[in-house]
Write a structure and sequence with these properties.
59 strands, 648 residues, eleven-stranded mixed sheet, 3 helices, 4 domains, mainly beta, Immunoglobulin-like
Length: 648
């Protein structure tokens, strides 16, 4: 059905459009009953739905039309159908029934509005993971006294933090107590959630409505990272900027997860948050939709510090309010991709890494840290950064990592930062565990336009280096993510911290769009370990090591014959009759130090004294060690060489 002129057209009864419904400019159409679109729906006029709208087809507009939900008899109108993306140019909600509630959209939908939203009378209820995306430029165009109500889930643990932002506002800002509601019974009472109760005690409680502790409402706004007074208490009734992040702990309700409802005017348009030079801020996604982290980084790369990514707190244990007992860390996202926080060994995970790996799309109400550069400026948000991507899609931040290796050859990469998509970069996820079992994952991505130095937007420092840990050693600092142009002969420096003498396990967590050998090279033992074959265990003494290990892609860097002169003038072997390792030094070379290792890198013998300079033969007792292959590292005035011996 095509309408070509200006007219008032009331249509009564059940209407199904199976072909094309085109409403031209200045045309007014009223549909009094339910309307099902199974074809193509094009509205550049004024379309009034007075029943429910079921969309099983396609929708479009030339940025002219306005769609009204304005029943005078129904308390609730609904949007549903098999097509989960619903498009309006302008949207108005104006139900005039005396007991009207508003428009209900069930779980899993994306409502896209090109221009403005007017909630004149009645609310817009977005259930579950349904999101609202607006795409116009500039400041907000939303009007009306109605609200949107949107769900989001956080931890219910009384000891663990949520880092929130608000997707709604009241008169341009938000106070926690004005916008946050208990969503426990949201499925059965979608339009009337109860306002959360507050207590000044340290612990919340699972009452009805839930009770939250106001003691744990904090913000960290424009402060130095190590500022002891950086955390400021947030008074729940005091308005905050929509881009500000706020911390909160749970009520102690069972199940581990608590549903909350945010209610207010939908945030829309441009927001900015000022930041001073070299300062951190806890900010967050201010929209009732996902936020594209790539677009946010690109828009703010001129303000972000070198080595800053987006840092997300992952609080997974501890059972205490004492900071020193918190079990958690920072997961990180950059244009190179995301890595999970250091993972506690008791946490159940799909792979041995942090429980939450950040993805490109930041969920509704998610807070995160970002660091400003030496000039400072404003962190900016705009509608172009918004996206209709749900958490269950697998593309949002709170999904778990995928351990599956992707055996696809490295592909050509877009060479423009404006078009970078971390999902397509070849990547290696390198894992590490110390004796206590904490799992750290590092990420390296291969992007031809990056450098061997620190690249803005791609490389991220590690904020939380633990007493036993692994990191990329870049620019004399610890990094958790870096991007590099790939070449086969490259070596990527690693740093290792060991709290005590212990076994360290190194492994590949995942290869993504990368095919090839991956080696861990240990300069201390002159061994290269092919990580593709499985985890490698290496003994590392207490201390910090930034020159011992590298990640490499060929074995050519090290061998047991690295010094030809020593190889030709020294002979090393195990003599079973005496139980000694014998070093024949017929050329009477000056030998300064001898170290003997097993193949796990564990140092067994260290001889520095009584070697007898220029001695023609050195005997080292070795009968107490088991049969196997050992490495004998000999340091002399003429250089260093490592010899393999077999004890049988």
């Amino acid at each position: 059905m095509t309408l070509f002129s200006t007219l008032y057209l009331p249509i009564h009864g059940q209407i199904v459009n199976s072909d094309t419904l085109k409403i031209k400019e200045n045309t007014i159409v009223y549909i009094a009953e339910n309307f099902t679109n199974t074809g193509f729906h094009f509205n550049d006029g004024k379309l009034h739905f007075q029943g429910n709208f079921i969309n099983d087809g396609k929708m479009d507009s030339l940025s002219l039309g306005t769609t009204f939900f304005d029943s005078s008899t129904l308390d609730i109108q609904s949007i549903s159908g098999n097509t989960k993306k619903v498009f309006f140019n302008n949207l108005r909600v104006n139900l005039t029934s005396p007991t009207a509630e508003g428009v209900l959209v069930p779980d899993g939908y994306v409502i896209k509005v090109n221009d403005s939203i007017g909630l004149i009378k009645g609310n817009l209820r977005l259930q579950g993971e349904t999101q609202l995306v607006q795409s116009h430029v500039g400041s907000s165009k939303n009007t009306g006294v109605g609200n949107i109500l949107i769900d989001q889930q956080g931890t219910s643990d009384i000891f663990n933090f949520n880092y929130w932002s608000s997707p709604v506002n009241k008169a341009g800002s938000f106070a926690v107590l004005d916008v946050l509601f208990d969503g426990t019974d949201a499925a059965i009472n979608p339009f009337h959630p109860q306002k959360v109760a507050l207590t000044s005690a340290l612990n919340g409680s699972p009452t009805s409505p839930i009770t939250l502790s106001s003691y744990w409402f904090f913000k960290f706004n424009n402060k130095a990272f190590d500022d002891p007074n950086g955390w400021e208490n947030v008074v729940p009734t005091v308005p905050q900027n929509p881009a500000i992040g706020v911390t909160m702990k749970g009520s102690g309700a069972s199940g581990g997860s608590q549903n909350y409802v945010f209610s207010g005017t939908p945030n829309d348009g441009d927001f900015s948050q000022p930041v001073s030079p070299d300062h951190f801020s806890l900010i967050g996604n201010p929209y009732p939709s996902a936020l594209d982290a790539n677009k946010f980084i690109i828009d703010n790369v001129g303000v972000m510090a070198s080595g800053s990514g987006l840092f997300f707190w992952d609080h997974f244990g501890g059972g205490s309010h004492e900071t020193k007992k918190y079990e958690g860390g920072y997961s990180v996202y950059t244009l190179a991709g995301g890595t999970a926080a250091l993972a506690h060994p008791s946490v159940s995970q799909t792979i041995a890494s942090g429980s939450k790996v950040p993805k490109r799309f930041i969920p509704v109400a998610q807070g995160f840290f970002v660091l400003a550069n030496a000039s400072g400026g404003n962190f900016v948000f705009n509608n172009a950064q918004r996206a209709g991507v749900t958490e269950t899609s697998g593309k949002s931040i709170f999904t778990r990592a995928n351990k599956n290796e992707i055996s696809v050859a490295p592909k050509a990469i877009n060479n423009s930062i404006q078009n970078t998509t971390a999902d397509v970069l070849p990547k290696i996820r390198l894992g590490h565990e110390g004796a206590e079992g904490f799992h750290r994952q590092l990420l390296v991505a291969f992007e031809p336009t990056t450098t061997a130095g620190v690249d803005l937007g791609y490389d991220a420092e590690m904020l939380d280096v633990f007493s036993t840990d692994l990191f990329w050693y870049l620019n004399n600092k610890a990094f958790v993510i870096q991007a590099l142009p790939f070449f086969t002969e490259m070596q990527i420096p690693l740093g290792v911290v060991s709290s005590v003498d212990q076994t360290h396990r190194f492994m590949i967590d995942a290869l993504e769009d990368f095919v090839g050998d991956v080696y861990l090279i240990d300069f201390e033992t002159s061994l290269s370990h092919r990580l593709n074959d499985g985890p490698v265990e290496i003994q590392v003494p207490q201390g910090q090591y930034v020159n011992r290990f590298v990640l490499a892609f060929t074995q050519t860097t090290l061998s047991t014959d690295e010094n030809a002169f020593l190889s030709n003038n020294l002979r090393t072997f195990y003599l079973k009759q005496s139980g000694n390792i014998v070093i024949e030094n017929n050329s009477n070379l000056d030998i300064n130090k001898i170290q003997i290792y097993n193949l796990n890198g564990q140092s067994l013998v260290n001889v520095q004294e009584n070697l007898g300079f220029q001695s023609s033969e050195i005997n080292i007792p070795f009968s107490s060690y088991s049969t196997g292959i050992y490495l004998v590292k000999i340091m002399s005035e003429q250089g260093t060489n490592t010899f393999k011996i077999v004890k049988n």
